[in-house]
Every structure is written in C-alpha cells, then in structure tokens.
C-alpha cells in the first residue's frame, strides 16, 4: 500500500515540483547570504564584496526564472523541431549569469571561465537560425517562396554590395554567414587559451605585441557578419515569421549576445584610455577592472533577460487547444536538447560548402549553379529522407517525424509564373 502511494506521488511530480523547487531555492538563499555577509564583514566588506553580493542577488533571481521556463518546455514538448532550439536558447541566461558571477568571485581566472560564455553565444546564434529555418520550412518551401519575392536590398553601410539572388543563394549566404561565427568563436577562444598559457594574450591591452587586439578584431568582424546575415534573413522573411512574433525573440538574441559583446569591448577601451579608473580602495589593474565591470553588468542584465525570455519564448505558444499529449516523455525531451549531432552535421556541411565554393570560384563557376531538386547540400535547408516516398505537396523529414507543407499551387494561380522563373535560374 505504501509503495503504491509513493509510486502515485512520483507519477504526479508535475504538481509538487514547483513548490519543492521554490522551498529548496529559498532555503539555499537563506543559508548562503548570511554566510557570505559574515565572511565579508570579517574582511571589511570592501567594494569587491559589494559587487559579488549585488550581482549574486540578480543571478539568484534570474536562474529560477529561466530554469522554470525550461522545465515547462520540457513538460509541454509539443513541437520538438522548434522547442529543442528554444530550450537551448533559454539556457543562455543561467550559463551567462553563473559565468559572470564566477568571474566576479575569481577575476584572475575570468579568461578561462568566460570561454564557456563565448562559445555558448555562438551556439545560441546557431540555434536561433535553426529555429527560424525550421519554422519557415514547416509552413512552406522557403527557397521557392523567396524566389517569388522582390529583391531584398543591402542595409547601410553595405549598400554598395551586389544583391544576393533571392531563393537558394540568399538562404545559403544567410545561413553560412551565421554558421561561420559558430566556427570562428570557439577557434579564437582556443587561441586565447594558448596565448594566455604562453603569456602573450594581453587581456584588455590594445598593443601590437599581444594577441588580444587581433582576436578582438576577428571576433568583431565575425560577429558583425553573423548579425548582418541574421538581419537580412529577418528582413526577407518578416511576413512569414509574423505569426510567431519574431521581433521580441530577435531583440532578445541581439541584446544579450551582440550587445553584451560590444559592451565588453567598449568597457575595455574606456579602461585602457583611462576614461574609467579604479576606486582608491580597490586598486585593480586595467584588465581586472574591465572584466569586473563587464561581469557585474551581465549579472544585472541576465535578470532582465530572464524576464524578457519568459514572455518572448513562452511554452504556451507551442500549445494549441485540443492538441494531443506530447509523444515524447520529459526524459526524452531533456536528452534531446543535449544531442548536438545536428550542430556537428551542419558545421561539417558548412565547411564542405565553403571548400566547394572556393573550388568553384577558382574554376570560374558559380557557387549556386546546382539546380533545385539535386541532392547536393539538400540537408542544409530542408533535410529530406532519401528512403521516404514523397506525397504530392508534402515531404517527410528524416529526424523529427513532422509532415511539412512543401507548397501547393491553387487553381487560380498562374502556373507559368513560378515555372518560368525556375527554368530561367536552372
């Protein structure tokens, strides 16, 4: 009898997990804060301790907000093709917050701690791009839809660049422009590790004999390209993305990832040129001061980002009235978000296409001369199963078991419009 009651209690874990989570979190705060205050008062409670306490309060508020939203997505895992990437994006706040707080506590080791944040920000951009592509490919044939649209012009200050041909070329340039940051950012982080080991990194120093300014310039350029491609893709697909309220999501990604990066660069420049100076009671050197300021601001900003994510990436958007219970269990949903095989596949294909495009340019051929329907690089935009039998107007993916509307032509639509444009391209 007792065993049955325990089994029944665990089966209803969704009912009691929230109050248990709140109670345990409150007890941890009640234990940690007094211990920290006692230790700080013994040491004189200097400015550094004040930063740790204030930053910790914001972090301890941000983490439960984000974790609760992640748990809700796992419980209501109704659309795996979309929610898998949303969950990965939501993990950004806990990772950034904990990383920044640890950087406040251990400022001298921040170059190692911050590497996790730097690599994950590239991972977040990749997942947001995949989220947009999956959403659009669930509703239409993205490439065919873009081919019928007017040309999207470049944004200032890149107005002089040649237009990206709408359709296959536009999607590929946008996707690979974003993917390059997923490759470049971890690579520059690894190089910074090596430079730190050999004492040639020069954190916060804009000098010619250290690696810091060169790595910062590469990261800035790579991130600018990724951001520009994301803006161009958003601009071209604004009408199709409108049902899922893209603007708050786009602003959350842009504010957290791009703003925090450029914020750090500006702080380092201000400290280097003595626009920001350390206080007399904490005579830090320049790099330590800039790192502390950046981490302190991120602790506060992550609390605001957690609130913004709660409204922008809410699980309720993926639930429809009368929809069936999610087919995957919570455990399967939790494990699915850690499966990074899609990242590995896309990066491998990205490197393959970059190499192939360079070879085509050398031979004087266009990078996008492959006709639609060819299997070359087909998985990059709309992965299709080679073994499945397509039904008229639909196709079946090989990874998420989602039937996707691949576009149909109504009786009132002139058939020759799309065919003529298609034949002209091929």
From TrEMBL:
<keyword id="KW-0812">Transmembrane</keyword>
<dbReference type="Pfam" id="PF03619">
    <property type="entry name" value="Solute_trans_a"/>
</dbReference>
<feature type="transmembrane region" description="Helical">
    <location>
        <begin position="20"/>
        <end position="41"/>
    </location>
</feature>
<feature type="transmembrane region" description="Helical">
    <location>
        <begin position="211"/>
        <end position="234"/>
    </location>
</feature>
<dbReference type="InterPro" id="IPR005178">
    <property type="entry name" value="Ostalpha/TMEM184C"/>
</dbReference>
<keyword id="KW-1133">Transmembrane helix</keyword>
<protein>
    <recommendedName>
        <fullName>Transmembrane protein 184C</fullName>
    </recommendedName>
</protein>
<dbReference type="GO" id="GO:0016020">
    <property type="term" value="C:membrane"/>
</dbReference>
<feature type="transmembrane region" description="Helical">
    <location>
        <begin position="53"/>
        <end position="75"/>
    </location>
</feature>
<feature type="transmembrane region" description="Helical">
    <location>
        <begin position="87"/>
        <end position="107"/>
    </location>
</feature>
<feature type="transmembrane region" description="Helical">
    <location>
        <begin position="255"/>
        <end position="273"/>
    </location>
</feature>
<keyword id="KW-0472">Membrane</keyword>
